[in-house]
Amino acid sequence: MLPLIQREKDILCNKKINIRGNYMTGEQLKLLTKMKKLITKGNKRFANRKDRDYLEELLEIGITESLAWQEILTLSSYNYVQDYKPFYSKSENSLVFKKDINGNRVYIKLKIEEYNKKEMTVCLSFHLDYK
């Protein structure tokens, strides 16, 4: 956790600090809000990855794709963690969260990208947290 003086400075600089000592900048908060708006409009998809099958990952957590999107809509600065692999998504517009779902700590990574000529929230990762 950050020292109290630094936390106060960060709050004054438009940063929301969570219990883990991580913070979201004003720009990141705006990005999360935009992601949620896109999701509610139906502009959302799970990324197809070569190394993971997201449906199997969701099954392991015990939720459906629809419930996963509902969980994403509840994310806040409290759940935010700094991306320890920012080079993986090759995007500065990605956000990483950890959330307890059905008794499991879940790692969630989101970004916005253009798909079929419209912006979409893309879920890059939604799986058990292994760290």
Characterization of the model:
With 131 residues, the chain is an alpha+beta fold. It has helices spanning 4-12, 26-40, 54-61, 65-73, 86-89, and strands at residues 16-17, 23-24, 44-46, 80-81, 94-101, 104-115, 118-128. The strands form two sheets. Strands 3-7-6-5-4 form a five-stranded mixed beta sheet. A hairpin with a 5-residue loop joins β1 and β2 (23-24). The model is unreliable at 1-15 (pLDDT under 50).
Features:
131 residues, 5 helices, alpha+beta, two-stranded antiparallel ribbon
Q: Looking at the structure, what is the overall shape?
A: globular
Terminal CA distance reads 18 Å
Helix and strand string, N-terminal first? HEEHEHHEHEEE
In DSSP terms (H or I, runs of 4 or more residues), the helix count works out at: 5
Side-by-side strand order of the widest sheet: 3-7-6-5-4
**Cα gyration radius (Å):** 15 Å
State the total count of DSSP E strands: 7
Strand content: 25-35%
Average predicted local confidence, pLDDT: 84
Uncertain runs: 1-15
How can the largest sheet be summarized?
Answer: 5 strands, mixed
Helix content: 25-40%
The assigned structural class equals alpha+beta
